[in-house]
Write a structure and sequence with these properties.
The protein folds into two domains: 183 residues, Ribonuclease H-like superfamily/Ribonuclease H (Nucleotidyltransferase, domain 5, 2-Layer Sandwich), CATH 3.30.420; 80 residues, no CATH class. The protein is built from 13 helices and five strands. The chain has a five-stranded mixed beta sheet.
Length: 275
């Protein structure tokens, strides 16, 4: 159901507080800007699905805030990092009571990257069609097809949580709490250039590699923010990994740099980075 007025949102808040839990998902667009642009918020409780259009100026964002930050309501996500990043960018803080289904699935022996459709199939026996996941969510009006797709993305999150609860005791479960630690760390979402390297995994972790990784990730972050483009438009993660490797020859690194789209970054690296 696409919410058209604040009264509907208030009713959903009351019902969700009684249920004590909601599923949460977001749809966003991050192809051309540094920060992702929030285009849609989806909520589900045990009996309702609500689609909220944050681009609709009639919708009171304070009501959305009350839902997301209510201490009475458990917020259930799947692969939560980008959703929480969006929420943090919008409100400057992150929800306290959260559960990430993808993280919980690792406790049941599933791979780290188990998708939402796979989770629904394995745990609920429900098939989810994710064929049209690359949608430009900025376009208005929202088609019926888009609304249906958005509903599917959030519909089964409460059911997945309840199913997992049959197998995992969440009460003071330190192992689960520990795995959610990064999602509750506000510093992880502040996008400080000096912390940018933490988002990128590298196989070689010697002093040379780590020094170069920190320098290059910080530089990429600063340039991307300044010209308002996604960081990977400046230089890809794989290019960074290659440039940080001491064992890769200088000639090869220069060849890699020639493919870097950012002239500013390319020139800086050619002068100061290639060792």
């Amino acid at each position: 159901m696409l919410i058209n007025n604040n009264d509907q949102l208030k009713q959903f808040l009351v019902k969700s507080q009684k249920d004590n839990l909601i599923g949460v998902d977001t749809e966003f667009y991050r192809v051309s800007t540094y920060d992702p642009k929030l285009c849609l918020l989806q909520f589900s409780n045990r009996s309702q699905i609500m689609i909220v259009d944050p681009l609709n100026k009639k919708i009171d964002l304070e009501l959305i805030k009350k839902i997301l930050f209510s201490k009475k309501i458990l917020k259930i996500f799947h692969a939560a990092y980008q959703d929480i990043e969006i929420i943090f960018n919008l409100f400057g803080k992150i929800p306290e009571k959260i559960i990430d289904i993808q993280i919980c699935l690792t406790e049941l022996g599933y791979p780290n990257s188990t998708g939402y459709a796979e989770a629904c199939k394995y745990l609920l026996g429900i098939k989810i069609d994710k064929k049209n996941q690359f949608i430009d969510w900025r376009k208005r009006p929202l088609s019926e097809e888009k609304i249906k797709y958005a509903c599917k993305d959030v519909r089964y999150l409460p059911d997945l949580y309840l199913k997992i609860s049959e197998k995992i005791n969440f009460d003071n479960n330190q192992k689960i709490l520990s795995k959610h630690k990064n999602l509750l760390d506000i510093n992880a979402f502040k996008k400080k250039p000096e912390r940018a390297w933490k988002k990128l995994k590298i196989n070689e972790t010697g002093k040379y590699e780590m020094k170069k990784l920190k320098e290059l990730c910080s530089l990429r972050e600063k340039i991307a923010k300044k010209i308002n483009v996604p960081v990977k438009k400046i230089i890809s993660d794989q290019q960074i990994r290659s440039l940080c490797m001491k064992k890769i020859e200088r000639k090869r690194k220069i060849e890699i740099l020639k493919t870097v789209k950012s002239i500013t970054l390319r020139d800086k690296l050619l002068k100061n980075f290639i060792a």
